[in-house]
Amino acid sequence: MKKINIIFLGIVLGFTLNISPTFAGYIRANGFTLLPTAWDPGLDTARVAAGNPAPGGASWSLMAAGILADAVDPHLDNSTTDFLALLGQTSTQASAFINSILDIWDDDSAFTNLGEVDDGGSSFGASNGAGGHLGDIRIGAIFIDGNVGSNVLAHAYQPCTNALCVPGGSIGGDMHIDNANTWGDGTGGTLDLFTVMLHEFGHSLGLDHSDVLGSVMEPIYAGARRSLHSDDINGIQAIYGASTSTVPEPSALILLLSGLSAIGFFGRRRKSIT
Prior knowledge:
The chain is α/β, with parallel strands linked by helices. The protein has one domain (6-247): Collagenase (Catalytic Domain), CATH 3.40.390.10. It is 23% helix and 16% strand. It has 5 helices and 10 strands; from the N terminus they run H-E-E-E-E-H-E-E-E-E-E-E-H-H-H. A 6-stranded mixed beta sheet has the order 1-7-8-6-4-5, covered by helices on one side. Strands 2-3 form a two-stranded antiparallel sheet. Helix 2 crosses helix 3.
C-alpha cells in the first residue's frame, strides 16, 4: 500500500477557546469535512479515505507522565504529565470516562471502540520498530500553549499507522490535552474535558472541523456538549457507515415485539414479511 507522508498532510487539529481572525480560513463552508485517512477494522490498521464509507475500529491507551515526543511531534521540549490529575480521577474512573466519550462516536456509526490497551511508555510518534504502536489512539496531557493567546485546548492527529504513513505514522490518531488549563465538568467557569475530548476524538477518527453552529466539530469551544449534532452524525457515517447495532429502547422493544406478534397472527398467509 502506498505510504502517506503524515508531516506533509500537516493534520494536527486543535480545539480553540478564543480563535483569532487569522484562523478563519480553516473553518469549512459546507458543514463537516473529512480528513484523508480513516481506521480499518482491527488493531493498527488504517486506510485512505477513498475507501469510505466502510467499517473501522481503533483501540486507545493512556500515556503516563514523563513520556517524550519523537521528532514528528511539535512538543519537542516537553513531556507528558499525569492525565489523571486533570480531573483527579483514578485509573478506573479515567478508563470509564474515556470509553464513554469514544462510545458516543461508536453508537452512531459502524466505527467500533476496541477499548483500552496497555501503553508501554514509548515516545509518542516513534516507529513501530521502537515500540511506537501501542494504542491506535494514545491520549496524554502535555503543555501546548498555556491559557493565553488563541489558547489551543487540545489537538489530535488524523488516523494513520506506521504501515500507511511514513515512519512515525504511529502518532496518527493521538490526542493531547493542554495541561495548563483548568479542567472540570464545564461548571463553575471550568472547561469541560468531556466536550473537548469528544471533539478531539472526532479528529482522531477522521473528521475535520465543521462550520455548523452547535456541532461537536465546531472549532471554537462554546460550552459543554455531551451528544452529537446531526452534522457530526452525518460526518462520522460518511466515513464508517451507519451503525449496525442499534438497540431499541425498552419501551420501543415492547412495542416492536407486540407488533411482531400481531404480524405473526394476522399475516399467517403471507409468504414473507420485509
